[in-house]
TrEMBL record:
UniProt name for this protein: Glutathione S-transferase
Gene Ontology molecular function terms on file: transferase activity
PANTHER family on file: ELONGATION FACTOR 1-GAMMA
GO annotation (BP), single: translational elongation
Length: 165
C-alpha cells in the first residue's frame, strides 16, 4: 500500500521509505530499515529470546513456508486491489475472490494450530494480521462469522497493544 498522504503517517516515515510503502523501522541511532526481510533479520538478531522466524530448523522452515503462503495468497491480492481502489477493474473482482478463498484456507489452518506456523507467534502471524487488517479496514472485505478460527485469532492478536506499535 502506498503511504502517500495517508492519515497518521508521519513525515519521517514517508521520507525514509524509498517507495513510500510500510513498514519502516527507526533505530535509536538514526538508522532506518525499510525492507521487511531486513527488519525480520534485525529483530531476530537483536532479540534472540523471542524469535519471529522460528527457533529450530523445522520451525524456521514452517515460518518461511506459511509467511510465503500468506504473502502470495493473501497479501498480494490485497496490495493489488488497494493500489487501484479508486479505479476498480475486473481484476479486482478476481482478487476479492482470491481473498475469500485465502480466508477460508486460513480458517482451516488456524483451526489446526494456535498460530500460523504452530504453537509460537511468528513473522507469518504478523504478515497475516496486516493482510486481514488492510483487507477489512481499507478494502471493506468482510470477515464472516463462520470463519471462527480466523476471527478468534485476528481479534485476539489485534487487541494486543503490541500489535500496532
Amino acid at each position: 500500500m502506498e503511504l502517500g498522504d495517508a492519515p497518521g503517517v508521519n513525515a519521517p516515515a514517508k521520507a525514509a521509505r524509498h517507495g513510500q510503502t510500510p513498514p519502516v523501522l527507526f533505530l535509536g541511532d538514526g538508522t532506518v530499515i525499510d525492507d521487511v526481510p531486513a527488519i525480520w533479520r534485525y529483530l531476530e538478531e537483536a532479540y534472540p529470546e523471542r524469535p519471529l522466524l522460528g527457533a529450530t530448523p523445522k520451525d524456521k522452515a514452517l515460518v518461511a513456508m506459511w509467511d510465503r503462503w500468506v504473502e502470495t495468497e493473501g497479501l498480494n491480492p490485497v496490495k493489488a486491489t488497494a493500489a487501484r481502489r479508486d479505479q476498480p477493474t475486473a481484476l479486482d473482482a478476481r482478487n476479492r475472490q482470491r481473498l475469500t478463498h485465502f480466508l477460508a484456507d486460513l480458517d482451516s489452518r488456524l483451526s489446526a494450530a494456535v498460530y500460523m506456523a504452530g504453537d509460537a507467534f511468528s513473522a507469518a502471524d504478523i504478515t497475516a494480521l496486516i493482510t486481514i487488517d488492510v483487507a477489512t479496514r481499507t478494502l471493506g472485505v468482510p470477515l464472516p462469522r463462520e470463519l471462527g478460527a480466523v476471527r478468534r485469532w485476528f481479534y485476539g492478536l489485534s487487541t494486543r497493544a503490541s500489535a500496532w506499535t
